[in-house]
Here is the input.
Amino acid sequence: MTTRQTFIISLLFILLGIAGFLYKYMVLEYPLKADETSEVWSLEAKVEFTGIGRPVKLNLYLPRNTDTYAIVDERFVSNNYGLSDHIDSKTGNRTATWTVRSASGKEIVYYNSVIYKLDSQIFAETFAATPPKPIKAEDVTVLPPDDPYQVALDSLIEEIRARSADTTSFVSELYRGLRDKSDDRVRTIKRGNKEYKTVPQLANFILKHAKIPSRLANGVDLTQDSPRASIIQWLEIYDGGRWVAINNENGVPVNATSYFPWWYGTNQLFELEGGAGAEVHLSVKKNTEQVITQAIWRGNQVENIPFAISLFELPVDTQLMFRILLLVPMGGLVIAILRQMVGLKTFGTFMPVLVALAFRETQLIWGIILFCSIVSIGLLARKFLDKMQLLVVPRLAAILTLVIIMMLLISYFSTKLNFTEGLSLSLFPMVILTMTIERMSVTWEESGAKSAMTTAFGSLVAACIAYAVIGNQYMVHLFFVFPELLFCVLGVALMVGRYNGYKLSELIRFKFFTNPGAVK
Amino acid sequence: VILRAYKLHKLGILGINGRNLDYVLKYNKRKYYPLVDDKFKTKTLALEADIPTPELYCVIRSQGEMYKLNEIEADSFVIKPARGSGGEGILIIRGKGASGYRKGNGVIISEAEVRYHISNILSGLYSLGGRPDKALIEYAVNFDPIFNPITYQGVPDIRIIACCGVPAMAMIRLPTRESDGKANLHKGGIGVGLNMQTGETLFGVQRNTVITHHPDTGHPIEGYTIPQWEKLLEIASRFYGITRLGYIGVDLVLDQKLGPLVLEVNARPGLSIQIANREGLLPRLRKIEANLKNLTNSAEKVNFSRQHFAPRPISN
Here is the structure.
């Protein structure tokens, strides 16, 4: 095949990659950057009680996906309990039920979940809010119109309705009215409804009379990062096709809400039969490992997006593997460019890529230190082995053993000295290290220390450059979200493969021709 | 950088990538590589074609055949890996004694060391890709004394690059003290460009620096004529037909009695020959490619080469 044909084919690959990338970026609006502000929390509910030797049934409300938050992972932990969960079609609440034949002594049941704040409209739409049922006449208790309580109620609603333009302003006016302690009507209404203690509860009641769909939500405030989180209750109204949370203080709708609803209604979080002294502890913890969680969650959402091969559909551990694997071709391309166009000398073709992969785990500085120390100690050992005049393969086996022993010692002492970096040493490619030691030693002997050092240095430089590319979080994200870019890598690799120009190093090698001053 | 690259381009200097893509990949079919990668096969082919090579005393293929070492009658011989590259792993023995063997540079080594060297060869230490190899033990060339004034120990060898049988460029490589008696340029040997027409030495280059005198013997390098030059060119030319490889470097030595002997053929010949000749390969290669259809046999090809590739006047 001629250079031109290869060039066209590579160009096609590159265009294919760019097209896929642009489609995902422009049409599907996949994010270019890993969203660092995307937020993930772990929630935990721990129910403790004392068994009294009777059958136990524990109902616990569970959170559901909302249009702001998605549950990406859930775990239920209990000791020998049967577990079932169901969704109440009327209230929309989800309940988990733990049952056991008999329990005595202290019992603990855990519910764990990881929730993710939606950051993109495409994904958010998949959680269309369930619309409320229309409020029917029999849902509200209406007293005779001349009853003072009913008069107060009607008059309050009338007045607020006159003052407000739409549902949201109605609600905020209502909140203001309910906070007005001097208003006799409010006092009358409060007196008639002793069970509604808080403003949201009262507002919920009054809104029902005003035929405005509303509900009481119970949940946690995600801004509190606490192992002892408390349940708060707030009002949600249905407006403009979605449920809007209302700020408890001023009755104003909260848009990007930090309230995460757990269940709706006025019930308690849990219900226990057959136990005593039940207590529930909630904890809210903001999570930093959001990248992985995002991935898990998106896996559930992208199926309905056309023509998109998304790696988020893969199981999490496979995804994690591909986060690394997808960058290996890029590392290979970097090495190809360094070797073919720059002319850097390295030990082995892809040894620097593997070392760069190891650097990901150890961090660059530590990686270089570890690499240098293992290789130099290995070289000393190799010198010693040389005196014994061993056959090549057994000698390699011996060096491999020494490399492993060194890694073991480094790990051991670094743990003892509290350098955790030593622990990640395990991913260092020991066979590659062994071959590096062997080849370096042979080069040393045959071409001199200078040549061996140059090549070793070249390998290290190549590894660092490869690391700069494949260890870059931005690149990781880019290739994971847009695996189409691999076509570009392929195309560029093909092009580099047909590069017949000079290497940078050859400009130095042939400087004789360009610089007549070199002639003595 | 770009300016430098442009200068090289203008001079027709062949780079590694250019050599690999435009010549090695184009003219050298993979399946013929084994013919030259294995010196044993090259030797056999050369023998069949009546091309002289150093006499093979024995081949050691495994540890068990090590006894053959002691059966060698000749006092001096060379041990080399069949698949070695860049002159690696070659051991020259100039004499046998009670205490061991005398190396080419006069150092005495024990028989155990020689055996260790052979077993290293067998396990592939010097072979391409570390594949198991065999050790060849062959006649140690007595180099034509004409080059004694400009040789430090070792054996000077002649490299001729031929494209489709047309010799394109040639040099002689002289061992120096720095190169430890080896003729390899990257170890400090001197590369001396050759006049394709006459086989005369032109000027030397050692480690990218032009030199006029041999650093160890102090003799001027220029003006030696290689005996039997035409025969050398003809041998290089004929290897195209023998190996079917279109772009090769043929390494020869001149023996005092036996004349030109082929040491090996290289399917990826190095580029330093351009420095030794102070000339780029590309113009010559292009000229060859352009005239190839008019050249049918070795004699014509050699003639073409001698006519067209005389050195251009140096313009320093």
Notes: The first strand of chain B starts at residue 56 and ends at 60. Chain B touches chain A at residues 1, 4-5, 7-9, 11, 13, 15-18, 20-22, 88, 112-113, 116, 119-120, 123-125, 130, 186-187, 205, 208-211, 271, 274-275, 278, 280, 316 (CB under 8 Å). The longest helix of chain B spans residues 229-243.
